[in-house]
From TrEMBL:
Signal sequence residues: 1-18
Alphabetic keyword roster: Chitin-binding, Signal, Virulence
Compositionally biased region (Low complexity): 146-204
Region: Disordered, residue numbers: 136-227
GO molecular function, one term: chitin binding
Name assigned to this protein: LysM domain-containing protein
Organism: Sistotremastrum niveocremeum HHB9708
A Pfam family hit: LysM
Occurrences of domain LysM (ranges): 21-68, 77-123
Biased composition (Acidic residues): 210-227
Length: 227
């Protein structure tokens, strides 16, 4: 039985304020590498950083503080897509139907032809609806395709422009440096050719993830509003 004295002490304890988990970008990071290391899906990361990071993740800057999730809408059950995997395989392995898969990953088209190697997919059995920051317009799911985004090499406050070739839109992020002297190109060219070539090798069977990709997890990361 809880005494009145004990109840009074508990009532006086501070209550955690709801916020958003945050992460500070490091050299060499890409949106998908951040997603994989912190169990935040590609779609979720793009939405909660709408207005800060563009849908193709071409403006990620070293030292920038970005958000990982919204409280109560954090899909921490994720899977990093391997070469040759299909949506049907993911549904079968993780025990989810196509409705839930597409609801949590609306950047994938109806035919699942634009899912790419390295993309981080939410595989939860329930639907999560991350929201854009207040005052920002949520990124269009059809534009979210950071596969060919260069790794972060410039610090916050440094202005650079890069050109992304549409022919490499289905390749996983590379770690090669990108010239900063070229002019910025429109994201429409990359978003219009988001298809993944079919692998000619035997299609592997995805392995259910434990939800831990070898990182220390995001439990100890600060919330955005605590920085």
């Amino acid at each position: 039985m809880v005494s009145f004295f004990t109840f009074a002490i508990l009532a006086a304890l501070p209550v955690a304020t709801a916020g958003v988990l945050s992460y500070v970008v490091k050299a060499g990071d890409t949106c998908d590498s951040i997603s994989a290391a912190n169990n935040a899906s590609t779609y979720q990361l793009a939405i909660v950083n709408s207005g800060t990071i563009d849908p193709s993740c071409s403006n990620l800057a070293i030292g920038a503080t970005i958000c990982l999730a919204s409280p109560g809408q954090d899909c921490s059950q994720t899977h990093v897509v391997q070469t040759g995997e299909t949506c049907n395989q993911l549904e079968s392995v993780f025990g989810i139907n196509s409705t839930i898969l597409w609801a949590n990953n609306p950047q994938i088209n109806e035919d699942c032809t634009n899912m790419y190697t390295g993309e981080v997919i939410c595989t939860a059995g329930q639907v999560f609806t991350p929201s854009a920051p207040v005052g920002s317009v949520a990124a269009d799911p059809s534009d979210i395709h950071p596969a060919s985004a260069p790794p972060a090499t410039t610090s916050v406050g440094t202005t650079t422009t890069t050109t992304t070739s549409s022919s490499s839109s289905t390749s996983p992020p590379t770690t090669t440096s990108t010239s900063t002297s070229t002019s910025s190109s429109s994201s429409s060219s990359s978003s219009s050719s988001k298809t993944t070539s079919t692998s000619t090798s035997a299609t592997p069977t995805p392995t259910p993830d434990s939800g831990d990709d070898g990182d220390d997890g995001d439990d100890n990361l600060p919330w955005c509003d605590e920085l």
